[in-house]
Write a structure and sequence with these properties.
CATH class of the largest domain in chain B: Alpha Beta
Radius of gyration of chain A: 14 Å
Order of helices and strands of chain A: HEEEHHHH
Number of domains of chain B: 2
Radius of gyration of chain B: 22 Å
Shape of chain B: globular
Number of helices of chain A: 5
CATH architecture of the largest domain in chain B: 3-Layer(aba) Sandwich
Helix content of chain B: 40-55%
Structural class of chain A: alpha+beta
Number of strands of chain B: 12
Strand order of the largest sheet of chain A: 1-2-3
Largest sheet of chain A: 3 strands, antiparallel
Oligomer: heterodimer
Strand order of the largest sheet of chain B: 2-8-7-6-5-3-4
Bound molecules: FE2/S2 (inorganic) cluster
Shape of chain A: globular
Structural class of chain B: alpha/beta
Distance between the termini of chain A: 54 Å
Chain lengths: 126, 401
């Protein structure tokens, strides 16, 4: 039966891609969602200016888990510049949309990648 | 796939006997009870009065004291606003518990702009009101005390008889919202000393669209709908005859059978609770251990979020409810519509985390096999969410939260 979420969301919720952590990650981002206390942690492996691997752990609703999963799919293989340009809209659209109250859950994904890239920049500055 | 309905606090399935009782009032007897000079109207009037008698019988009221409404929300609105308006001369102070349903809490909002003052009583960790708090908050200008009979989210049954006694002593009107409890645990309006009681037909195997407010004889109440003189002038509008008939039939069945349901459901509830305790760690049960609705098991799980738990349970054919903010009002318009359960906050569940609050509420049709099936899937679902959760990972590494 059709629930409140799209099939894409449910697919990523039921079979999330890239769950886990990366040992000695090049960048780690952690963001929380003040609206509901949810949390996402994103690990990146960067090589030659490209994101070669991404893994996540998320404590949150169906939309938060699906957004995390979709985000990792979207950023793998992208350059740092390309990844930084990803917005929550891109993530939500790739999931065939989210209910209006759940848009903020995709914001968590956008913020996680920005935070992980900042961490990478900090670690690799000079 | 399994189809296990463990969400009887949201609604109950219609009893087939109720359905049979309602059927003639759609096609055959479609009369308006107010036009009872002819046979069609007379048949409707007789049916509505019979239903009134049955609903009154469920709570030991007089049939004249039953006012049919569209449901519990309307009955709560009528009780709160109706008393506030009719008794404004005596005073404008109202006492409620902090765990009342939205239809009580939100009925109070417009009164705030009109000079009414509301005292919200704290509850303890089990969600119970202390009757002594009621006593100490009563003032000369207090006109109404409203404390629910049972809380749907955490199952706790409130000490309404004690509160009723205090209200009687101090001559303050007492309203109790019995939406979650009526038809499941005995409720005698005389023993309880309640002046107003809210009842909901679809919460005890009746149809949606019918509720009632018990209004003790002699209690003044301002009608909230302008119109005709139906329901002794307390509620204008043609009665929803088939639904009212259904609510009456459901009340009759509940009165005769609820003791049996209760015994069975208490057994199933214990089996479910013991099973969860044995198979899932980091579980915190909510509500009072013994003073609770039969067949009602509520808890939250650390490191697992409520909506995700519900979604996975539903994928396995198990339907339950959650008080987590993330799962509230998915059809709302913005983040503001995501409200963490005030009940969970009131009993001290950490509000900074979107906890995995789950309410399993069983009904008379549920079985021990279904309990076992739920116990079979729950630990795996929790484990799956933990494996995704950064907080669980940290906890495992550090050994602390
Ligand atoms: S992250 Fe809590 S609502 Fe989605």
């Amino acid at each position: 039966m059709a629930g409140p979420y799209s099939e894409k969301v449910m697919d990523h919720f039921m079979n999330p891609r890239n769950v886990g952590e990366i040992e000695n990650a090049d960048g780690v981002g952690e963001v929380g969602n003040p609206a509901c206390g949810d949390m996402m942690r994103l690990y990146l492996k960067v090589d030659g200016g490209k994101i070669v691997d991404a893994k996540f752990r998320t404590f949150g609703c169906g939309a938060a888990i699906a957004s995390s999963s979709m985000l990792t799919e979207m950023i793998k293989g992208k350059t740092i510049e390309e990844a930084r340009a990803i917005t929550n809209r891109h993530v939500a659209d790739a999931l065939d949309g989210l209910p209006p109250v759940k848009i903020h859950c995709s914001v968590m994904a956008e913020e996680a990648v920005k935070s992980a890239l900042e961490d990478y920049a900090r670690k690799h500055a000079g | 796939m399994a189809h296990i309905f463990f969400d009887h606090i949201s609604t109950t399935p219609l009893d087939p006997r109720v359905y049979e009782a309602m059927k003639p009032y759609f096609l055959e007897w479609y009369g308006n009870p107010s036009s009872h000079i002819h046979d069609q109207g007379q048949a409707a009037l007789v049916a509505v009065d019979a239903a009134r008698g049955a609903v009154a019988g469920l709570v030991n009221a007089d049939p004249r004291e039953i006012v049919f409404t569209s449901g519990a929300t309307e009955a709560n609105n009528l009780a709160i606003k109706g008393v506030a308006e009719a008794h404004a001369k005596k005073g404008r102070h109202i006492i409620v518990s902090e765990v009342e349903h939205f239809s009580v809490m939100n009925s109070l909002l417009p009164l705030g702009n009109r000079g009414y003052e509301v005292t919200r009583l704290k509850v303890d960790r089990d969600g119970k009101v202390d009757p002594e708090d009621v006593r100490s908050e009563i003032r000369a200008d207090t006109i109404l005390i409203s404390v629910m009979h049972a809380n749907s989210e955490i199952g706790t049954i409130e000490p309404v008889a004690e509160i009723g006694r205090i209200a009687r002593e101090r001559e303050v009107l007492f309203h109790t919202d019995a939406t979650a409890s009526a038809g499941h645990v005995p409720l005698d309006v005389r023993e309880t000393g309640a002046d107003l009681v809210t009842l909901s037909g679809h919460n005890f195997y009746g149809p949606k669209g019918a509720g009632a407010l018990f209004v003790r004889d002699g209690v003044a109440l301002a009608s909230q709908l302008d119109g005709g003189f139906q329901e002794r002038g307390f509620r204008a509008g043609t009665e929803n005859v088939p639904a009212v008939v259904g609510m009456g039939a459901a009340a009759g069945i509940a009165k005769a059978e609820m003791d049996g349901w209760g015994d069975r459901l208490r057994g199933l509830g214990k089996r479910l609770r013991d099973g969860i305790e044995a198979t899932v760690s980091h579980v915190h049960f909510t509500g009072h251990a013994t003073d609770r609705l039969p067949g009602h098991v509520s808890f939250w799980v650390e490191f697992a979020e409520g909506e995700s738990l519900l979604l996975f349970l539903n994928l396995r054919g198990v339907m339950a409810a959650s008080g987590s903010a993330c799962s509230s009002n998915l059809r709302g318009h913005d983040e503001e519509d995501l409200v963490a359960s005030p009940v969970l906050r009131a009993i001290g569940v950490p509000s900074d985390v979107c906890t995995g609050s789950i309410t399993f509420s069983m009904g008379k049709g549920n079985t021990g096999e279904e309990v076992d099936e739920v116990l079979g899937v729950l630990p795996g679902i929790v484990r799956r969410l933990w494996d995704m959760s950064p907080t669980y990972l940290d906890y495992q590494k550090r050994g602390t939260r």
